[in-house]
Amino acid sequence: MTTTQRTHLISRFGFAGALVASALVFPACGGEPVDVEDFEGEVGEAEQATGPTGANNLPPFAIDSDPLARSVTDAHGITSTTNPDPLPLCKNGTVTATGCTLKPEWESWMAADATNRGPMMKGIAKCSISTSFTITTNDGTLTFPGQWELYPNWKTNRLTGEDKRERVSSCLLSLLNGNNLELAICIVGPGGAPFSTPCSDPRLTIREGGFYGNLFATNPTAYVAGPDTADPVDSGRACFGSQGNYCCAENDTNCNHRIVLTGAILGSPDQNFANKRCNAPLVDAGGGHWYCPSFFSTREPNRSYTNVFTTFVPPAQ
User: What is the dihedral of CA 117, 170, 260, 258, to 10 degrees?
Assistant: First the structure.
């Protein structure tokens, strides 16, 4: 992989039968940072050069703890009963061109459950700021480098709007890895260039899964859909990976895990077309990358998620 490729190698998670998971490679994002409180731009808010390869492994158990649930963030002053928009990530007056100090409320939140919220803060940084920017705790002992500049203005402004919270949630779910494996993957989805454009690595041609939900909600949701066939890359990865069984069947309401394995993106003859969870026509990003712009789950039959990502992987070797 060369430095001209708009991809990053990171860990992710895998499912048997419906989702094959592990690690992924993301495309970069586009535009200059705009730190305006009411900015409502799409996902590509900032120009990001190709960054270094990185191992980014968000453990599934961190999702189970609901670290971003509204009651949790309210308790630490990150949100409030009247404002669901999370506070800025950076402490006032500490932002430079290359980094900042973590805002005290976020540091207090993380310290209350370091096992789960440390990995989650790593994921938040990866899903919001550029590779050239690093968030550091006040004592300098922990650092959180960025990777994909989804919402760089979150450094100094609240993350405004449910659409942004859902998009960050989809990104965080794409970072999961229960098997500690790595696989080249890109994400494509609605929200503007470059995420709505083809994967830059020509090897990434097999549509794998879809990611959607809202980890910041009062009752957090976390869904994975796909793939269209049982195991498109013959990976052998499974929902009961090295970190245990960490996902629930869509119809299993007694399961105590947060991540829900839903139906396929489109369904296929061997899975039943009625099992599809994409509820809108596929969109052609070009280069053979057709992605779903809207997913649903039978757990929320009247709810459509449109701030979503579809992943692509290379064919089996």
Answer: 20
Paired strand residues for 249: 261
Asked whether the beta carbons of 266 and 278 are under 8 A apart, the reply is yes
Model pTM score: 0.82
The residues with which 12 forms a beta bridge, in sequence order, are 181
Tell me how far apart the alpha carbons of residues 124 and 217 are, in angstroms, rounded to a whole number: 16
What is the spatial distance between Cα 147 and Cα 134, in angstroms, rounded to a whole number? 10
Q: C-alpha 200: how far from its chain's center? A: 19
What are the b/e assignments for 279-302, b being 16+ CB within 10 Å? eeeebebeeebbbbbbbbbeeeee
For each successive 10 residues of the chain (317 residues), what is the average pLDDT? 35 37 31 29 32 51 94 98 98 98 98 95 92 95 90 97 95 78 76 80 83 96 80 48 76 90 78 82 90 94 93 75
Give the separation between CA 166 and CA 171, rounded to whole angstroms.
9
CA 106 – CA 77 distance, rounded (Å): 9
Rounded Cα–Cα distance for residues 311 and 227 (Å)? 9
> Phi-psi bin for 68: left (phi > 0), alpha (psi -120 to 50), beta?
alpha
